[in-house]
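Extended Data, panel c. Modelled sequence:
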Amino acid sequence: MPKVTDTISYPQPTDRRLECERALEEDFQVFTSLAEGAGWSWQEIALALMELTEDYAMAMSMSTKSAESNTAPFPGNKTLH
């Protein structure tokens, strides 16, 4: 199976997004071909991928929020003089 290519850093986020898409494209084609070969329709594959993508995005979002809340200083650290 092909490997996802390394990232190439670009200054603009749009360029980076496109580079990520290009890096994933070949493996994506192999992956969807395997699913089709197993008998799944393109509609079933597309729906499953959308659901998995949503799950991934939610998990990453929750992970990021959790990490951010763990590093924020506790607002109740006030001493009375």
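The two ends are 66 Å apart (CA to CA). This feature is highlighted in the accompanying rendering.
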